[in-house]
Amino acid sequence: MDNPNKPKPCPKWLDDMAKKEWRRLAKLFVAENKEFTDKDLKALEAYCTNYAKWKRCEEILAEYGYTMEVGQNGYVQQRPEVSISNKAQTEMRAWAKELGLTPASRRRMRESIMNEGYDPEMEDMISHD
User: Fold this and answer.
1) Which end of the chain is less congested by CB atoms within 10 angstroms, N or C?
2) What CA–CA distance (Å, rounded) separates 114 from 98?
3) Residues 64-108 pLDDT 10s
4) Is the pTM of this model over 0.90?
5) Cβ proximity of 4 and 35 under 8 Å
6) Residue 12: which residues within 8 A CB-CB, separation 6 or more?
7) What is the pLDDT of residue 32?
8) Could you give the 3-state DSSP secondary structure of residue 67?
9) H or E element: which one contains 16?
10) Buried b vs exposed e over 42-79: b needs ≥16 C-beta within 10 Å?
11) For residues 15 and 48, what is the distance between their CA atoms, to the nearest angstrom?
């Protein structure tokens, strides 16, 4: 059985920006004594991958702006990084909730523990007539 408080090694296939975020979060999980098992690895991989994608897009947008001229007529259109950034941020937010990285998700986790496993959101999902 794996030790839930031991930092997990960073996957080699992640790019440098995603690895940096992985290591930052791994330190936080250890410092907060947060249970983190092998079952959580894919969620953290997805979060870090989308974090890196979002950050790269935002750097490009900061340098080049949100629009670009296309064609001989100089037609102005939105840069593709705008959509990529928005999608990555949406995915990142969803994975952050799964990992308990948002204030609301941490509050729900604390309330769930205080209610001895009673989760009103889950109860609401399964108790419809």
Assistant:
1) C
2) 19
3) 999 999 999 999 999 999 999 999 999 999 999 988 888 777 677
4) no
5) yes
6) none
7) 83
8) strand
9) helix 16-31
10) ebbbbbbbbbbbbbbbeebbeeeeeeeeeeeeeeeeeb
11) 9
